[in-house]
Amino acid sequence: MIRFLKTGTALLAALLLAWLLPWLFSFVTAEPAWRPFTLYSCVVHSFASLDHGDDGSVVGRDMRGNTYTESQFDSILPMFYYRQLAAEGRFPSQIEGVPVTVRDAERSGFIFRTSPSDVNRPAVGIYQILESMPARVDFDAPSDVFRITESGIEFVDMETNTTDEAKSRLFTEVMRRKGFRFPARMVAGNPTPKKEYDNGCLVVDAAGALYHMKQMRGRPFFRAVPLPDGFSVGRIFVTEYPDRRHLAFLTDTAGHFYAMRADDYSLHEVAVGSFDPTTESMMIIGDMFYWTVNIESGGAERLVAVDARDYSVVEVRESPAEPSRWERAARFAFPFELSFTSVDDAFVRPRVAAFSPSALWAGAVLAALYLLLRRRSLRGGVWRAAGIVLLGIYLFIPLLLLEPRR
Amino acid sequence: MGDSVIVCRNLTHYYGERLIYKDLSFEVPRGRILGLLGKNGTGKTTAINILSGYLRPRAGECRIFGERSEAISPATRARIALLIEGHVQYSYMTIAQIERFYSRFYPRWNRDAYYGLMELLKVAPRQRISRMSCGQRSQVALGLILAQDAELLVLDDFSMGLDPGYRRLFVEYLRDYARNGAKTVFLTSHIIQDMEKLVDDCIVMDYGRILVQMPVRELLGSFARYTFTTGAAELPPIEGAFHPGVMNGRAELFSFAPQRQVEQALGGAGIVFDGLVRESLNLEDAFIGLTGKY
Amino acid sequence: MIKAILYKEWIKMRALLPVAAVAVLGFTVYALLRVERAVDFRGAAHVWQIMIDKETVFIEPLRLLPALAGIAAALVQFIPEMSQRRLKLTLHLPFPQRGMILVMAAAGLGALAVLFAAQAAMVWGYMHRLLAPELTARAMMTAVPWWAAGLTLYMLTAWICLEPTWRRRVLYLLMTAGVARMFFLSDVPRAYDGMLPWMAALWLFSLLLPLLSVDRFKQGCQD
User: Fold this and answer.
1) How far is C195 from chain A (nearest CA, A)?
2) Of A3, A201, B114, C179, whose CB is crowded by the most CB atoms within 10 A?
3) Is residue C223 part of a domain?
4) Into how many domains does chain C fold?
5) What digits encode the pLDDT tens for the residues B249-275?
């Protein structure tokens, strides 16, 4: 019993160190990571980024080796810097032979962002849907919430905490009639009243089929969205951008990324490469000509320029993650790292990462040092020595502190 | 041997590098009151800690009622009353609460013995023990010990903090209690006068070893002080003599040997002496004779 | 005998328990009253909306209380045992020594459990009438690690108190600080759901830790 408790205490101390030492190490050695802001230029047809020169001045560069002043940089990205250009009277009248106005730039521009920490959060399990056709111009905040259970959809009035039986029955019937299989597997939407228009919700049913649901004058609008055979929905991001061209961005479980058109529910793959919203973040800065898609994970970045008109990929640039010299040093010191939180999600749970076989050497040295310091024979200290080889400094420190010299 | 309540064998203990004892062995026979005497720092409390299971010696073992002291069974612990150095008790309780608490643990609990002693205390029933004087607290602790009606009493420095009258009272009380109930008592005290009236046997400890273990009567009957005049300024080591010394031409030594034998020893050591006188000792003088003044 | 042990623990704790109860339950009432005020002024829908949009469960101000109650309970129970090494008296009683420590700990854990259950009942009792079960569950589940912190830190504080040497106490204190930090890494509702089995394992282990301190006490370890 006592031996169990002693072992447990040493291991508990080792686990705490496995958590806190790497944290402390990276806290002390952290260096700012900075990547220049990069967009695809519809004028020079290359990625162009804004960087700081050695003297602190702003320098624009494209990937062909040209440099730009700040004002030149504005003009190679007219759809992004349209306000600056318009103010200076420099907004072009046509791009790629297509006549454009400042209004076009304003309406077609959008920024889409998702990050793993947005996606990986504890869900509430209740949702809201706006009234898409409010009596007045602005949307009202919903007064109820809904859940989709095995028996149907249930609307609950927030003020009274009671189920709106009539509305629930009405929606359930319509959904059933359209072939919806209860319960819902996924509900996606943006139930904020602070937007220009409402695309409602996209709902995946128990069988994996996709449906579009809106509330119009208190009545259900519910429609099945045709999906290619074998398509399995990953994540859905309903969009409500000013050009109203798309209903949503979505991924499938195989890691493909799609844009879904609002007019005909047509699904267009955007071949940005494998994208998993639970582990990678994505930012799209788009306009009517090109989208610059930036996918980031673990310090690696992938830039993809997409032609907005036909979703074809125009250019790809990848920059891999470069571990800093401190990170490389840590690989020798720490056999693994324990953490409970992650920048990629909002959950607290133990996660063991950064396994490093190179740290076994450090562990072997520490084990020998331990046997020497504690004057133990290899035979008498074999378990402890083996533990130190495996757990390295994490176990070395507790054993020295918790076991008296004999 | 078979009827010893406490048997300690070959105890060796260090505090850090400092040796407390090496190969210390002793026994406490059933029905006897044994006093452990020693100067400060000779390890009296250490011995009590070892035999009550609160210190693991480097080597050796103690057995109480045949059980190893570090693993005494609850049933056996019920037969042992333990008085901790400083008369420590649950001082956040009142005398009534503490009695209620302890009485549940001991089947032979003697409530009247406890309250009999508490009546002498003149404390309010709701007064917490921590608010009492040092002497009063000691009396509460002793009252609890007696109420437990154990077969073996282990008392560490029982007379500490008691005023002389109460000390005398308690010594008498304890002696009657032990004799009538055939109790075994193992105790330490730094006031040796008390011990003389109380203990049957004594162990006198010096640093790291036992000087004597014998019945007090035997010790006082055989151990004596010898004084004589001599011209020598210093005495050489003399066989069988403890702490020989000379002051102003008057020499002094202590010995278990009868006078004739001391005379022979002095002669054998080549000491010229005159007027050798043998004096009987009380326990305190005997203790000093054995252990020295310093 | 168990009754007598509980009686002694009760004597040690009885000054603390009303204070802890007033603090924990008082703050709970305060937190719920704040929700009630929001309902009065802005309507229940506002409260729902904030819970859904803002990742809050309104009882966040209570999150340290169970931990503080746990630490305080362990201190009032076990410091008196260690001052003047009174544990010698306790371990000398004719009761199995490990059982004695576990019964003492059970007394403290029981008192804390009653307190936390009362707190949980108040929160649930208020919220389940006002909110959808999903939201009430969200609040309750968010509070579970706080209660776990109270019960675990109680045991770890007992472990520290019963340890006989200061050198070790400092080491244990550092470990306990690390463990305590683990319970408060996130304010996101239900963030700890996946952590609960690990917390339960840690708590089960912590139940036995005071026995390690007692073993060292019995060996006579000293500074």
Assistant:
1) 5
2) A201
3) no
4) 1
5) 889 999 999 999 998 888 888 888 888
